Amino acid sequence: MVTGLINKRKISIAVADDSPIIRQMLSLLIEKDERFRLVGVFEDGSELISNIKEMSGSLSVCLLDIMMPQYNGIETAGILQVEHPELLIFGYSSFSEGPLVDEMYQNGAKRVFQKGKCTVTQLLDVIYEEFI
């Protein structure tokens, strides 16, 4: 069993994205999906890192935008990979390829999903498959 699965095998997830609309959309759709438990929504990587101790032990997945103020997704993924290697990290960005996406993978992202090309339902299905 993967660590971080809680409340009847729900996968706990935290989101960091600087767009209020994206945060709201992700929050609503994650909360409706009975496979997941949303444990945190943050404006940037710095805020996520500052609050990660409160989620420690229950957090399984971090979904990160690449371009954010403070710590962007690349920096955040690197910190998480070193300090919390048990977490699965996914990117969710307007970028689908290029050096920024490559850096996300180098810093531990399992996959980077492109906003507008991948539905949140598809994204959640892929994340869920990582735990089966």
CATH architecture assignment = 3-Layer(aba) Sandwich
Principal-axis shape: globular
Major sheet size, sense and barrel closure: 6 strands, mixed
Low-confidence segments:
1-7
Gyration radius (Cα, Å) is 13 Å
The CATH top-level class label: Alpha Beta
Helix and strand pattern: EEHEHEHEHEH
Through-space gap between termini: 9 Å
Descriptive key words:
Rossmann fold, alpha/beta, six-stranded mixed sheet, 132 residues, disordered N terminus, 40% helix, single chain
Brief account:
The chain is an alpha/beta fold and about 130 residues long. The protein is about 40% helix and about 25% strand. Strands 1, 2, 3, 4, 5 and 6 form a 6-stranded mixed sheet that branches.
Describe what you observe in this structure:
The chain is globular and about 40 Å long. The N and C termini lie close together (9 Å). 40% of the residues lie in helices and 24% in strands. The protein has helices spanning 20-32, 45-55, 73-83, 99-106, 120-129; strands at 5-6, 10-16, 36-42, 61-64, 88-93, 109-114. The protein contains five helices and six strands; from the N terminus they run E-E-H-E-H-E-H-E-H-E-H. Strands 1, 2, 3, 4, 5 and 6 form a six-stranded mixed beta sheet that branches. The protein is an alpha/beta fold. It has a single domain (5-129), classed as Response regulator (Rossmann fold).
